Amino acid sequence: MDAGFGSFAELRRHTDPARLDAIWISHLHADHSADLLAAVYGLAYGGLTPAAPLPVYAPDGCAQRLAGFFGRADVGFLSGVFDFRRLYEGHAIRHGELTLSAREVRHDVEAYGLRAEAGGRVLAYSGDSGPCPALGELARDAHLFLCEADIDAHRESEGGGQVHLTPEDAGRVARAARVRQLVVTHVGPTLTPEAATARAAAVFAGPVVAARVGAIHAV
Ligand SMILES: [Zn+2]
Hints:
This protein is α/β, with parallel strands linked by helices. It has 2 domains: 1-87, no CATH class; 90-219, Metallo-beta-lactamase, Chain A (4-Layer Sandwich). The protein has helices spanning 7-14, 30-33, 35-45, 62-69, 133-139, 167-177, 193-201; strands at 23-24, 54-58, 82-86, 92-95, 98-104, 112-118, 121-125, 144-148, 182-185, 208-210. Strands 4-5-6-7-8-9-10 form a 7-stranded mixed beta sheet, with helices on one face. A 3-stranded parallel beta sheet has the order 1-2-3, with no helix packed on it. β2, α4 and β3 form a beta-alpha-beta unit. It is globular and about 50 Å long. Zinc ion binds next to loops.
């Protein structure tokens, strides 16, 4: 789920890439997708080639973006490792016990949040988003809500509209959706994880922690 800088190396510390069923990318900003490049190198040239191409659920244009790093306009050479499948509003797919549902959220590029369900447990993920109704619907009654808290105060983007959340926004979504646990992530440079956690916790009464590299959370 998302592939920001360094995530492929971290993933390999926890699991074998051969165990992946799919990759899910919320939007094409590099801090959420750049390590698809690392994954291509690992999978295509690093001895980690999957038995079948790995489904990559991502907004339109992901394959072209990735091929661009190789200086190529065609995307066919990626088909040995990745099987790109375009996300859209309401997209839902099953992989064994796992159901992945996408909703379009408010960002300055096409972006999706995710609701992942397995065995009656629900993980919801905001991706990057400003406040929007889809966030609350994705997070409804989730056991764990991984939510961005990027900005310290409400601010409009260049294109108009708020495209990230404050910690209080994250707490409000968690409270309204009655989630069991909130994990704040994507904490921006004008905040600290401690400040983001405390500010979200002032709004949401349930448990709140900040995401940390290597931390393990039960869903
Ligand atoms: Zn973004």
